[in-house]
């Protein structure tokens, strides 16, 4: 909780109920004593995550994404859902980091961009 704002820490301490933790150490909370839908109200329960490290929304795995966004009220099983052989491990968005994809010839990577069939050819006078 070191990088968590003071207000969120206080709210979590006073009103939060820990419902689970993902494989990356992110902790998921909801309001204490709340049900999936408030009685006599159109409001949904309040749900939030305390990130283990940098606060970046893409760090929420698919296992927890549906729950945090109120798509389902079912919590993921302990350890996450069973993965298929073809599924890759969840990785957060790397845009803006040193690990971001930089194609050959981009402003941030040396080299020349490979020519493609739809490239523009400048008009040359005869």
Summarize the structure.
It is built from 2 helices and 3 strands.
Task: Describe what you observe in this structure.
It is a single chain. This protein is low in regular secondary structure and 126 residues long. The protein has one domain (1-113). 13% of the residues lie in helices and 12% in strands. It is built from two helices and three strands; from the N terminus they run αβββα. The protein has a three-stranded antiparallel sheet with strand order 1-2-3. Strand 1 and strand 2 form a beta hairpin. The chain is elongated and about 80 Å long. The termini are far apart.
Annotate the secondary structure layout.
Layout: H1 6-15, E1 16-21, E2 27-31, E3 47-50, H2 62-68
Antiparallel strand pairs: 1-2, 2-3
Q: Count of DSSP E strands?
A: 3
Total helical elements:
2
Rough shape?
elongated
SS strand fraction:
5-15%
What gyration radius follows from the Cα positions, in whole Å? Answer: 22 Å
Helix content: 10-25%
User: Unreliable stretches, pLDDT < 50, 5 or more residues?
Assistant: none
Mean of the pLDDT scores?
84
Q: In angstroms, what separates the terminal alpha carbons?
A: 69 Å
How many domains? 1
Q: Please summarize the sheet with the most strands.
A: 3 strands, antiparallel
**SSE-based structural type:** little secondary structure
Widest beta sheet: strand line-up: 1-2-3
SSE order: HEEEH
Key terms:
single chain, 126 residues, little secondary structure, three-stranded antiparallel sheet
């Amino acid at each position: 909780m070191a990088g968590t704002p003071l207000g969120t820490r206080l709210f979590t301490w006073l009103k939060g109920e820990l419902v689970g933790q993902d494989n990356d150490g992110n902790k998921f909370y909801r309001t204490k004593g709340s049900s999936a839908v408030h009685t006599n109200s159109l409001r949904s329960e309040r749900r939030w995550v305390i990130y283990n490290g940098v606060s970046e929304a893409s760090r929420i795995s698919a296992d927890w994404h549906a729950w945090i966004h109120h798509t389902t009220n079912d919590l993921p099983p302990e350890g996450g859902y069973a993965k298929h052989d073809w599924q890759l491990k969840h990785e957060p968005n790397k845009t803006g980091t040193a690990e971001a994809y930089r194609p050959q010839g981009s402003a941030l990577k040396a080299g020349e961009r490979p020519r493609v069939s739809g490239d523009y050819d400048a008009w040359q006078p005869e």
